[in-house]
Amino acid sequence: MAAAIGVLIFIVGLLVSIALHEVGHMVPAKKFGVRVSEYFVGFGPTLWSRKGKETEYGFKAIPLGGYVKLVGMIPPEDAVKPVRGHGRIAQVIADARSASVDEVLDGEDHRAFYHLTWWRKVIVMFGGPFVNLVLAVLLFTAVLVGIGTPTSTTTIHEVATCVPAAGATECAADDPASPASEVGLQAGDTITAVNGEPVDEWTDLTSVVQKSAGTAVALTVIRDGETIELTVTPATYTRPTADGGTETVGYLGLVPLAEVQKQGPLSGLQLAWDYTGQTLKAIVTLPVQIYHAALATLGLEERSTTSVMGIVGVGRIAGEVTSAQVEGYGTLQRVGDMLMLLGGLNLALFAFNMIPLVPLDGGHIASAFWQGIKNGWARLRGLPRPAPVDVARMMPLAYGMFAVLLAMGAVLILADILAPVQFS
């Protein structure tokens, strides 16, 4: 039951994030005079709708996105250069233009989106991703400042008995003993120095150990109030990396004691910055990640613990978060983890939508900037204002990208069901 509640909370949080994303587009569009004819959360058949003054609001059956219909995004034929050719692509462009022109009511051409100045277009199209970015920062800040987050201390919580094989989470009979167990390190020991340098945070230790495979490291340890000097040689350990590869690091076999600590007021912003960089790296490697997810689905390789996940996989994590039976892991910690999950999801929505390809928001932002460049160049040369960027010419690419996104989403859903990411 707890897992089902977690999944339900996640779905509601996702829908709220999508709804607010579309509000980020709709509000500035209306402010600039553009008629917004539809505002829907979801795709497919309409479940419920209500007609406002000029906008129809509602929910659709498939909760995997949403949209606002900004009237007149594509300029009419007489406002742009003619499209050459009469093939299939030309027909797609013509059909898209015709549908857009038909949306404009008589006497309201001045309210068409294509009439907006380039910077107003940027504001409207950036509004959606910006809302997701703000939501991510607010959610991260609420958790880090208000609830706190488990932070590794310099005290040992657990000593592993072995050096596990790459990708394994449990010891096998033939695994070698861990260096930490061999030198007698114990749970409750506090590490105060490594190679004579003070250890204030757990990362002070791990940064040295990971670079010291096969090289002796001197540790200063406090045990029951007494100071003990130990020398330990980290073992060589192979672990997966975020890009699907592996790396070799030093390994002792120590698990730190974690304490919930509240962070500073800017910690949410800092975490959002760090996660954005990681998300952008994941986007760059997305084709490779999808390829490996497909192989895992077919049973041709193991699904990496660093694999990108789809909506099903993230929902499963939400269920596991709320149903976890861990000592000291209470309701407040579950709420915090769910908020962090939703914050990460909003950050992913922000980063993904900023890809400069239609039909994503970033593609429309790029075309608006191109309009600004064209206008500025014409102004410098004393020429008349150029024609608006013809978004209709991008429609074949938009349809192709949409098909690719659907295919990628389908692969991830299948991978999440047939070869789910397994965490230790």
Which features characterize this protein?
Pdz3 Domain; alpha+beta; 10 strands; 424 residues; 2 domains; four-stranded antiparallel beta sheet; elongated; 11 helices
Low-pLDDT runs of 5+ residues are none
Radius of gyration, in Å, reads 27 Å
Query: What order do the helices and strands follow?
Result: HEEHHEHEEHEEEEEHHHHHH
**How many β-strand stretches?**
10
In terms of DSSP E residues, the strand content is 15-25%
N-C termini distance: 22 Å
The number of domains is 2
Helicity range: 40-55%
The gross shape turns out to be elongated
Q: What is the helix tally?
A: 11
Determine the mean pLDDT: 88
| Class derived from helix and strand content | alpha+beta
Largest sheet properties: 4 strands, antiparallel
Main sheet: strand order: 5-4-6-7
Give a description of the structure.
By secondary structure, this protein is α+β, with helices and mostly antiparallel strands. It folds into 2 domains: 1-148 and 263-424, no CATH class; 150-261, PDZ domain (Pdz3 Domain, Roll), CATH 2.30.42.10. It contains 11 helices and 10 strands. A 4-stranded antiparallel β-sheet has the order 5-4-6-7. Strands 1-2 form a two-stranded antiparallel ribbon. Strand 1 (36-51) and strand 2 (56-70) form a beta hairpin. It is elongated, with a radius of gyration of 27 Å. The mean pLDDT is 88.
